[in-house]
Amino acid sequence: MMQSKLASLTLKGFFTLGLFLGVLFSSFAASAQQAAPSLPLLFDARERLARPDLSSLVRLRFLTSVDFPPFNFTDQNGKLSGFDVDLAREICSELEISDKCQIQAIPFADLRDALAASQGDAVIAGLAVTPELRRQFLFSRPYLMLPARFVRNLGVPLDGKTAAALSSHPVGVVRGTVHEAMLAAFFPTLKAEPFDTKDALLAALKDRKVDAAFADALQLSFWVSSPASAKCCALFDGPYLSEHFLGEGMTIMLRQKDSVLTSAIDHALATLSRNGRLQEIYLRYFPYGLY
């Protein structure tokens, strides 16, 4: 049974790989002139996680997919790339086992069964953590949270810089999504305008049929930077995080028997968070930031 990607955040059908790469590469020059967006620390700076002995480890096989840019994809040269791919390599480097590491891409639907069958040792591909999966697998600590954000039409005057300024404005949201439920719970006084699809929502925002929208920050950040938005809009207020609505965040899934390896990966993630390497990878793929 195929598990959903984290918060259903795949960009397939929303943002083509070619357009994603174009926005990504054009963003570097612009972001160089701005303050670097900050990645919130998910590990306590005072926390020191023990580094287990991996001397008996024969190899570490990361499994990922290629349909979830910017986390994993095949670039224009046919090379496996993405945030998760670079992070896996950094984890191996931090644990001093780069010569034992492999990264393999397989269809997303096969990841769970492949790990269960020991065809790999760790899945790094945006699998949503569920109670069912927790009964069968171990998970690392989260290394990235994907927040919800508002996006506003810049042609609409707002009296303030927080969500309170939207109190008299229609705010679009995709019907039946976690973001619709989250908007209602976090901002019950805002006037929500539901749309059937994200394309319809963004078209309405661009045409000023709604003044703002509430959705996934990942998709919104790339849309406002892409030609599709025609520079109509900008991220506004936030970010907003909620484990109840948005899940536990990006994690690495391992087999139940691999508690030592799980602890080693947690140690590596904590170290990469403290020494700034995780931030560097984040800026490589999210130059405009999610937060």
TrEMBL record:
<comment type="similarity">
    <text>Belongs to the bacterial solute-binding protein 3 family.</text>
</comment>
<keyword id="KW-0732">Signal</keyword>
<dbReference type="Pfam" id="PF00497">
    <property type="entry name" value="SBP_bac_3"/>
</dbReference>
<feature type="domain" description="Solute-binding protein family 3/N-terminal">
    <location>
        <begin position="59"/>
        <end position="289"/>
    </location>
</feature>
<dbReference type="InterPro" id="IPR001638">
    <property type="entry name" value="Solute-binding_3/MltF_N"/>
</dbReference>
<dbReference type="GO" id="GO:0042597">
    <property type="term" value="C:periplasmic space"/>
</dbReference>
<protein>
    <submittedName>
        <fullName>Solute-binding component of ABC transporter</fullName>
    </submittedName>
</protein>
<dbReference type="InterPro" id="IPR018313">
    <property type="entry name" value="SBP_3_CS"/>
</dbReference>
